[in-house]
């Protein structure tokens, strides 16, 4: 059998960087600006404001559709006078009471449901009955039971928050893997300790989603309720502010009130829930 010769050594001379070409091309200014999410959204809002201004000027009827500049002027005037901020705080203070009570009741129902069979039956039955019922439909009963005041508003807010939070939290608890459940049981955890140490961290994405939904439902319900009977303890909130200015035909102020409703919603979403999300589920690697 013929003997193969050894493979000869191969030597290559490194190519200079100039001959390789461009490996990493820096982004242009336009590309860097396009990758800025905040800037893209600001530009989008600016375009929408320009379209609003042009259309309103073309329509030339402030009673139907005020210009963007007139709306901003009314918003600035309302903020500087303190009246609009006072109305906003009235709404927020009532909302916080109803939101906190709704979360507390949802937590009790969910813990009961996850630890006992009868609790599961109670939660599933009540959720199926009351979750499809719009909170605003309970206003007549709220007026009869609690009168014209904060009690009625808090009642409809609790209804708005309770079922959304309870349903999402219970679904999150039920989706926790069997392995994690067995780990908790092996450590001897039962009752509230089991829920706190095992179920809540594992189900927190669903819990946070329920809290967001509960907030959105409560905020919309509160504004709608104030539009109907918004005076509470002698002063109304943002919904009542919108209703009063509609009666006075101050349409720019009506739009200013709507802007304040949107602005508060954006603040809560981006500076409260987003911060909680980054500090929990994204930090834990549960969401990208």
Write the layout of secondary structure elements.
Layout: H1 17-20, H2 29-34, H3 37-59, H4 68-81, H5 83-115, H6 117-130, H7 139-146, H8 150-174, H9 178-186, H10 191-202, H11 204-229, H12 238-247, H13 251-279
Helix pairs in contact: 4-13, 5-6, 5-8, 5-11, 5-12, 6-8, 7-8, 8-11, 9-10, 11-12, 11-13, 12-13
Keywords summarizing the entry:
single chain; 288 residues; mainly alpha; MetI-like fold
Shape: flat
In CATH, the homologous superfamily of one domain goes by the name MetI-like
Return the CATH architecture of one domain.
Answer: Orthogonal Bundle
Helix/strand order, N-terminal first: HHHHHHHHHHHHH
- Percent of residues in helices: over 70%
Rg calculated over all Cα atoms: 29 Å
Largest β-sheet summary: none
The fraction of residues in strands falls at under 5%
The CATH class name of one domain reads Mainly Alpha
Count of DSSP helices? 13
Q: CATH topology of one domain, anyone?
A: MetI-like fold
Helix/strand/pairing class, anyone?
Answer: mainly alpha
Strands, count:
0
N/C terminus separation:
62 Å
Assembly level:
single chain
Can you give a write-up of this model?
The chain has 13 helices and no strands. It has 288 residues and is mainly alpha-helical. The chain has a domain at 68-261: Orthogonal Bundle (MetI-like fold). The longest helix is centred in the middle third of the chain and has 33 residues, at 83-115. It is flat, with a radius of gyration of 29 Å.
A few lines on this structure:
By secondary structure, the protein is mainly α. It has a domain at 68-261: MetI-like fold, CATH 1.10.3720. 74% of the residues lie in helices and 0% in strands.
């Amino acid at each position: 059998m013929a003997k193969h010769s050894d493979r000869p050594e191969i030597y290559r001379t490194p190519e200079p960087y100039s001959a390789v070409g461009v490996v990493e091309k820096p982004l242009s200014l336009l590309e860097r600006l396009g990758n800025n999410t905040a800037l893209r959204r600001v530009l989008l809002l600016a375009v929408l404001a320009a379209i609003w201004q042009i259309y309103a000027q073309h329509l030339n009827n402030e009673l139907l559709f005020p210009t963007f500049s007139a709306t901003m002027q009314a918003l600035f005037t309302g903020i500087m006078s303190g009246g609009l901020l006072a109305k906003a705080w009235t709404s927020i203070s009532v909302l916080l009471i109803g939101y906190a009570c709704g979360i507390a009741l949802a937590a009790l129902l969910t813990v009961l449901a996850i630890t006992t069979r009868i609790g599961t039956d109670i939660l599933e039955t009540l959720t199926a009955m009351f979750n499809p019922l719009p909170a605003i439909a309970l206003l007549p009963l709220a007026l009869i039971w609690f009168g014209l005041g904060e009690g009625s508003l808090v009642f409809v807010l609790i209804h708005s928050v309770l079922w959304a939070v309870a349903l999402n939290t219970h679904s999150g608890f039920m989706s926790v893997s069997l392995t994690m459940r067995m780990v908790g049981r092996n450590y001897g955890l039962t009752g509230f300790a089991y829920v706190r140490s095992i179920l809540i961290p594992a189900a927190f994405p669903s819990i946070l989603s329920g809290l967001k939904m509960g907030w959105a439902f409560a905020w919309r319900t509160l504004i709608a309720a104030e539009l109907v009977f918004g005076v509470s303890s002698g002063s109304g909130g943002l919904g009542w502010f919108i209703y009063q200015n509609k009666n006075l035909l101050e349409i720019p102020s009506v739009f200013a009130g709507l802007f304040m409703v949107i602005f508060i919603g954006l603040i809560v979403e981006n500076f409260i829930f987003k911060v909680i999300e980054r500090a929990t589920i994204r930090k834990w690697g549960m969401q990208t």
